[in-house]
Amino acid sequence: MKPIRKKTKNEISQTSFKALLENALDGIVLYDNNGVIIYAAPSAKTVSGYSAAEAFGKNGIDFVHPDHLAEAILAFKRVLKKPGKSLTLIQQLKHKKGHYYWSESVLTNFSHVPEINGIVSNFRDITEKKLAQEQARETQGLLETISQNLSEGVYMGIIGKEYVYVNDAFLKILGYKSFDQLRQASPADLFAHGPRRLEIINMLRTKQGLKEVEAQLVRKNGEIFWGRVNVTLLKEKGKEDYFVGTVRDISQEKMAALKLEESRNFLNSIINTVAAPLFVKDEKHRLVIINDSYSKLIGLPREELLGKTDRDNVEAKGEVNVFWKIDDHVLKTGESVVNEEKLTVKGKTHDFVTIKSRSVNEKNEKFLIGFINDVTEFKRVEKEIKQLNANLQGVVESTSESIFAIDKNFLYTSFNKNHKRVMKLLYHADIVVGTNKLKCIKNSKDEKWLTADLKRGMKGNHFVSERRLDHPQYRDRYIRLTYNPIYGENNSVEGLAIFVSDITERKQYESKLNALNEELTQQNWQLAAQEEELKATLEELSERNFELDQLMYKTSHDLRSPLSSIMGLITLMQIDKDANNQAIYINKIEDRTKKLDEFIRSMLNYAQANRADVNISVINLKQVAEACIKELEYLDNFKLVKTVVTIEHEGIAFRSDLLRLNIIFGNIISNAYKYFNREARSYLKIKISITPTAALIEFKDNGIGIKKEYQSKIFDMFYRATEKSQGSGLGMYIVKQAIEKLHGTIKLKSEHGKGTIIKITIPNM
Which of 50, 373, 403, 597 could pair covalently with 55 via S-S, beta carbons 3.0-4.6 A apart? Predict the structure, then answer.
């Protein structure tokens, strides 16, 4: 879209254009204080024959008939003295074709309106009307004919009562077929809004006449349109108040003005979304349009920049001269120019790349459009890169290795002198930047393996290759090649850097050492294997002994404690003869039995998690979670915790050990139910995400949580992190043992009083 530029003092703004349209009759021009035309509406051509471009810049008196010249000058001076003053002239004006026509002109001083700042002339061709008045002034019929042929609606009526006369144009505009049909309607019916009608009547009675008043009117079919009304009040003593006036349908004008305003606002929105500074200059180098980024760059508000040149805003005059020269070239030739420039703002110099082009409007006015890209940081980095390249080149040339780089088309991009010498010696290739590496080694002894290595590196593989050379100059020599892929911005391989080292001496030493060490290696291997086996056995034995001690103690304590309680309760039942208390004893016995059962289950889980073989099968993790939840329905807190299970990528098959997964899910879910928060609306959210390589499982609850000082010990055997714990203390220990058996990981994050998040990763086997 072609940018809209801000109008200069010599140009009409969008707001001015709208105001002029609102005051137009048939033709419209805008004069400055010297009587020079600074704007002409397209409708002016219909009246005068002169286009807007032809009228622009000419003095208004150039078109006035000599007989009316003095009167026109006097009228202009009278209007010029008083802002807001209007004056009507009947005069002869010169048509483009050379003849003179009669014109009715209304001069209005709008110098007090900043958006206009000039004298508006609304004029129309009244030659026919003038001639008719002169030839048949006394003939009422001829006057009626003239009235009926006007494009404007003419009307006459009595205020608040009825119309007494209208012309055909009036009937057409309002949609009535005849005057009789119109008389059936009240003048009030023609206004869309009653308050506006009353406002116009009050204004009319106060001022005796109104010009160019806008109001929304109603056609006979109910359609609302915008009309521009001129009306005069005729008052005679002792008689009713008559009014006479004209009306014009300006709906299309209003619509055009609205669209123009919308387009302007839309364009301003667009240019302000452009991140790069943008500006438009006229032929005198004055800024007429800028975006917010340009204003921010210069450090001055928009209102202080518009209408000014670079000489007003830029500190360094040398920089201004560069801008001026390029701008003149673009405005003169129309050539688009991309140029590197410097700009100093508040003592800091920036490097820019500017793109400048020319635009020419329908008036043949030339404008320069520019975009600015700040490359200061780029220049700094570029300088550093050049310095690094220079340093790197020095290092590359100082080494005895052969170093070179190629692009993805196997063309040389750089190499050191040693590599150039080797290529000449081995392959008789005199290489330069851009030489094809594959062509240099074609039909050589090294072509097959070297081509394969280069193509492998181009696939993104970083590797080292050792090769034996078989050339007359390098017979029985060994080299070591290191291939390093070079990646571009999109993480794609753009080339290779290859380092070639002579490892012949190392190979010779290695050959001797290999022969001496081969036998020793075999002996050491056997000894190491036996030592490792013994060490592993001792470690496992030590760990199992510790666990056995713990198990023996806990088993004797945690099994005996509920059994002792049960035996005591049975004794009390036998002593207490009150039948009402029997149910209480039975409930307590049941509670201790459940605790005993839970401990035995934990012991079984422990044994299974540590001793059972890993049995891999396809597993539906959602079903595992739901089954574990169902098994825990007997818990007292089950219904107080809302449990939600979600799974992502359920279509991907997951393989693992079902037994251990049941142990993992069961222990973690039961903890969420046991240690829920009574003061919150408790929930447990289980989120499962399956990938081809692993299952990611998250358990999130808002339970009582775990204090920070206890979190590091939560996976220890028989550890209980809360005073409210009634479990065996084996739950999370068994979970971790089961996860390690499956080569997975577990992470726990908890905040006391707010809840716990457990994240588990299990490999997809």
Answer: 50
